[in-house]
From TrEMBL:
One of its GO terms (molecular function) is oxidoreductase activity. It holds the Pfam family FMN_red. Coiled coil: none annotated. Residues 1-143 form the NADPH-dependent FMN reductase-like domain. This is FMN reductase. InterPro entries: Flavoprotein-like_sf, FMN_Rdtase-like_dom, NAD(P)H-dep_FMN_reductase. Keywords: Flavoprotein, FMN, Oxidoreductase.
Amino acid sequence: MKIVGISGSIVGSKTKTALSLLWEEMVKAYPDAEHVLLDLAEYEVQFSDGRNYLDYPGDTGYVTEQIMQADILFIGTPIFQASIPGTLKNVFDLLPTQALRDKVAGIIVTAGSAKHFLVAEQQLKPILSYMKAHLVPTYVFVEEKDFMNGKIINDDVHLRLQRLIEDAFDLAEAQAGIRAKKEAAYDF
């Protein structure tokens, strides 16, 4: 099973901190899975121009191919101006319409205040659903007050990240069983 994490911004550190904590817990819980963490700040991703994702060279091609090969995606995003960052939206624009079919997606959101908790519901979840991802129903929302000195200090956030991991893996396993049952129904 291949797990890909996306830290969806090229600025700031809180989303990367939250995703890194999730990553530590996941590697401990599922050491045999293939883990790839993509921090968009470390890549030069081109703007989408309508080409097939396989036609993009360099970092853009690498990022899109990793996402397309994933079984589970963990998408971390900050909230800027009551929206997801353009860098993350661009990554989705680079992919085919049904790129996330049969993939499970879990969401981690960092924001300056609780006022932005619905951004994932109103913007990110619809994009992921449109692209045919199986969404973990609950996401982890981390506020400014949950951080201190570059670390997450709220124990409840730690527990919610662990639960997100468990739910994502359970959903992926259930979806794999459903696909296997459907494929077994065909007699060829």
